[in-house]
Amino acid sequence: MRKTAERPGLAEEATDPLERYGVIDIGSNSIRLVVFEGLLRAPLPMFNERILCGLGRNLHDTGRLDPEGIEGALLNVERFGVLLRAMGVTRFDAIATAAVRDAEDGAKFVAEVERRCGIRVRVLSGAEEAELAALGVLSGAPGADGVGGDLGGGSL
Asked: Which CATH class for the 17-132 domain?
């Protein structure tokens, strides 16, 4: 597995470790915006908002993203872009996980986010998603030793 620093677009390009950094996480059930006051080893969020959209609702039955979830996701990603600008955040990553990765229309959704919101979304592989979850645990608990599971909407 590649190290995070080898993947462009995932925060490793930081030139000023105290510069604000944001993450838009597009998941199966919710979309989250977190803004950090810098990229330190264990950064504390200065802003954290989660919106339930249900993008992955009925995905297992239809193979497609939920139409209402798509509209809610687009509205909120657009709003999160406005919030990032208002907070002076110029560096951020927008990532999508299981629902977008697995849906027949996932690529179409990603293209629509970019067209409508001007935000490029990176769809994580299952392995990348697991690695980033583990790194998140280790940044908060460096001595963690054991087994963990991501109980996200569609990733377990």
From this structure: alpha beta
